[in-house]
From TrEMBL:
Protein name: Plastocyanin-like domain-containing protein
Gene3D superfamilies reported for this sequence: Cupredoxins - blue copper proteins
InterPro entries: Cu-oxidase_C, Cu-oxidase_fam, Cu_oxidase_Cu_BS, Cupredoxin
Composition skew (Low complexity), residue ranges: 251-274
Any GO molecular function: oxidoreductase activity
Annotated stretches, region: Disordered: 246-274
Superkingdom assignment: Bacteria
Plastocyanin-like domain span: 131-239
Length: 274
């Protein structure tokens, strides 16, 4: 990279230029922390191997292990916290499973972030699925009817968000799946909306189209002013043949007028006083 370009990237003359890989949740020595603070970043033209360790639980020592839904990100671009690096997309998702954990058919990483973005896009740019040939990716969330779909939701930036998907719900457990049928299993809440703050990560496991069928299901932040500004995409559920169903469109051609309050001849009674 030309020196002039590097200098243009330098936001803080006292901060070195480079990139790094900093992860959450798993174990590493400080030499794999990915910070200027620990001198574990990569200067221009350099390279570095980062080593992470996944660990099982240890009931003898009380160590909780590293299974979970995590993310990794740059920590040095533009400043000691890598804020411009994260904002420009230098992040990703990391799943660590315990042996025997249920495996999904598909995993989508969805970062909810600043300026009402999902994976740094909003409105129509957040959903670029080609209806004839949908290619799964950061801006094309698609699955076939019945597939087990795992969402790894990441909060980036400065705002709180909520992850909400229409027509689907999941168990609020470590894996999104309930094991067993006892009283404890029955006490686990089933949810369809979950708060995600900056740096938070969680997994949500759904069965595509289960009990609701294929279609184009909205997936959005439920902070209303965020969704109104475009923090919304679509979970496309294909039919059993892998075909996209016809899109119903955003509004009916001939909108049906809502029945006025108070009801008319056909309005159902609101109570039974007999
Ligand atoms: Cu939001």
């Amino acid at each position: 990279m030309p020196q002039a370009t590097l200098e243009q990237l330098r936001l803080d003359p006292n901060h070195p230029i480079g990139v790094s890989l900093h992860t959450h949740g798993v174990k590493y020595t400080q030499m794999s922390d990915g910070t200027v603070h620990s001198n574990s970043f990569v200067p221009p033209g350099g390279s570095r191997t980062y080593i992470w360790y996944a660990q099982p639980r240890n009931t003898n020592t009380g160590a909780q292990g590293t299974a979970g839904y995590w993310w990794y990100h740059d920590h040095v671009v533009g400043g000691p916290h890598g804020t411009p690096g994260i904002r420009s997309g230098l992040f990703g998702g990391l799943v660590v499973r315990r042996q025997g954990d249920p495996r999904p058919d598909r995993t989508y990483v969805l970062a909810f972030g600043d300026r009402q973005t999902i994976n740094l896009r909003r409105s129509s740019e957040a959903d670029t699925c080609d209806e004839q040939n949908p290619v799964p990716g950061p801006t094309c969330v698609v699955a076939k009817l019945g597939e087990k779909v795992e969402f790894l939701v990441i909060g980036i930036g400065d705002d709180m968000h909520t992850f909400h998907v229409h027509g689907h719900s999941w168990a609020d457990t470590r894996t999104g799946v309930i094991e067993g049928t006892g009283a404890l299993a029955n006490s686990i809440p089933i949810i369809d909306n979950k708060t995600v703050g900056p740096g938070d990560t969680f997994g949500a496991r759904v069965i595509a189209g289960e009990s609701v069928g294929p279609g184009h299901w909205m997936l959005h932040c439920h902070m209303q002013f965020h969704s109104d500004l475009g923090m919304s995409t679509t979970f496309h559920v294909l039919d059993e043949n892998g075909a996209m169903t016809a899109h119903a469109g955003h509004a009916p051609a001939n909108p049906v007028q809502a029945a006025p309050a108070g009801g008319g001849q056909d309005a159902p009674a609101h109570g039974n006083h007999g």
